[in-house]
Structures are given as C-alpha cells and as structure tokens.
Amino acid sequence: MITGYADEKRKIAAQFSRAAKEYDSVASFQREVADYLLNARVTPAQRANEVWLDLGVGTGYALPSLRQLNPKGALIALDIAEGMLVHASETCDRLAVSRVCGDAEHLPLGSETVHRVFSSLAVQWCFDPTQLYRELHRVLKVGGRATLATLTESSLCELKQAWRVIDNDVHVNHFLSHGDILKHAQPYFSVNSEEKTYHLNYPDVIGLMRDLKKIGANHVIGKASSGLSKRNYLRQLMKAYEPFSEDQGVRATYEVCFLDLVKVSE
Predict the structure, then answer these.
(1) Which E.C. number(s) belong to this protein (predicted)?
(2) Does residue 226 form part of some domain?
(3) Residue-averaged pLDDT of the chain
(4) Contact (CB, 8 A) for 156 and 252
(5) Which long-range contacts (C-beta less than 8 Å, at least 24 apart) are formed by 159-168?
(6) 222 lies in a domain?
(7) Which residues contact 199 (CB under 8 A, 6 or more apart)?
(8) Quick one: pLDDT band at residue 192, thresholds 50, 70, 90?
(9) How far out from the chain centre does Cα 201 lie?
C-alpha cells in the first residue's frame, strides 16, 4: 500500500469530482473505448434478475447500453468521486440505477452478489492491482464476469519523454504493462485479453494539458501537486514536445488493455 493511501484516494476523488461538469466535453476517446468494450465484449444478461455493476461509472455514459443489455436486472453505478455520481444522477434515476460512492479496492458490496462487472478506464487509478482483482473475485458469483478496459504503460509515452528532457521528476502516472496486468489477474480469473493503440491529436501541448485537466487525469499519485500543470515548465515542455508534432498538431498515444475475466471457482 502506498504512503498516505487514504489521502491519495481523497485527492483522486476530489479531482474527478471537480472534472465532472466538463468531462463529457473532452471525453471522445473515453467514449470510443467504452463503445468498443460494450460492443466487443459485453453480452446480454442470461437471466432476468442479474446484478450488474458499472465500476467507475463517471458521468454515466455506458449506463443506457448496460440497461439495454440487462433490462430486467439490477444495475449499480459505483464511483469514488461523489461529483461524478451527482452528475450521473439524472441518467441513474431515468434508468432505475442504484448509485454507490465507493472504492474499487474496497467494494461496499456483499460477497458473491454480482453477475457482471463493467469498468472502462477506471481501474488504472487503483493502487494495488492484486487487491482489486481479489475484490472483484469476492463480489462476483461463480461464473460471473468482469469486463474491463484499462490503460497500460505506454500510454502518454510522448508526454513522458518530453518531461524527461526537462527533469527527472515524475510528471505522468505510471501504468502497468499488459503482462503485469495479466500476472495480477490470472490467480483469480480465467482471462481473455487484447491490447489496442489509440493515437489522439491536439492543436498543441496546451490543448493536451487542458484536456487532461478537464477529465480529471492530471493528478499524479504521490505528488503534492500535479507536474502536468506547472506554468513555469510550459515553455520548456512545448519545446521538448516538438518531435511529436504532426500536421494536425501534436500526438498523444494511449495503449488500452481490454480484459474479459471469468470467475471459475470460489
């Protein structure tokens, strides 16, 4: 467990709560990932009374699709950020979705109570991946599935390289490799996975930094304040980012691991 666990969790929750109002205006990549996860890996409920969990629900983008796939069962929207849940409240009320504020590493749910977990671009914010998969295993019924999308270590590689030109401090969060993700998940689940690369373009480095802030992803775990927003470094960062400039602006790469986990035993 990292030093100051509870304080770091509060910072992450506060960062995403502040971002809730502007999140959807810059979340096209997040919607694309969620759509792929829903279309490629989530199948309709097999029974009328299934309990599904949207883990890290955010502003509730996936909820209408999940309700369509599980029309008669229970649907739970869980997020660590109260502000996100407030923003998603209208969607939750319209679709008869229960809202829960909680931490993925300490799920406030009973053991073997959930048939399906859906989570898109949320679990990379967990500190202890073993604890995450242990909790998912605990709350899922035997035969239940967890369908996840999470960032891997090559994400924002251009930004990481540009910062290394300037100093040796940590300015971008570390994400696990595909192999390490599997290593943590396989003791608990039967695992099927794939990795996809997404290249995003921004008008300039300022646009990239602004979007990271608007989606709440500018908090660097373990730092008092995020290096992504230090104004005195901006000019240096723009210069260091020049190798990643293109006709459309500047490039940012995201690597996403898509996981389908099946609980085969207690």
Answers:
(1) 2.1.1.197
(2) no
(3) 93
(4) yes
(5) 159/208, 159/241, 159/252, 161/240, 161/244, 162/205, 162/237, 162/240, 162/241, 162/244, 163/227, 163/237, 163/240, 165/236, 165/240, 166/233, 166/236, 166/237, 166/240
(6) no
(7) 251, 252, 253
(8) very high
(9) 20
User: Domain residues for 32?
Assistant: 5-153+173-199+256-262
In the predicted model, is pLDDT for residue 228 greater than 80?
no
Q: Which of 88-97, 143-152, 180-189, 226-235 comes out lowest in average pLDDT?
A: 226-235
Residues 178 and 152: beta-carbon distance below 8 Å = yes
Q: In the structure encoding, which two tokens stand for residue 182, read together? A: 């599997």
Q: Give the pLDDT score at 227.
A: 46
What is the rounded CA–CA span in Å between residue 131 and residue 4? 17
Computed from CA positions of residues 222, 126, 254, 83, in that sequence, does the dihedral angle turn out positive or negative?
negative
The number of distinct structural domains making up the chain is 1
Decide if 243 is inside a domain. no
User: Any idea which residue has 């490039």 for tokens?
Assistant: 251
pLDDT digit string, tens, across residues 76-111: 999 999 999 999 999 999 999 999 999 999 999 999
Q: Is 222 left (phi over 0), alpha (psi -120 to 50) or beta?
A: left
Q: Where are the alpha helices (DSSP H) in the chain?
A: 5-23, 28-41, 63-69, 82-87, 89-95, 129-139, 157-166, 178-185, 205-214, 234-240
> Which of 217, 258, 254, 201 shows the shortest CA–CA distance to 36?
258
In this structure, what CATH number is given to the domain that contains residue 96? Answer: 3.40.50.150
Single out the residue of 137, 132, 155, 139 nearest to residue 30, CA to CA. 155
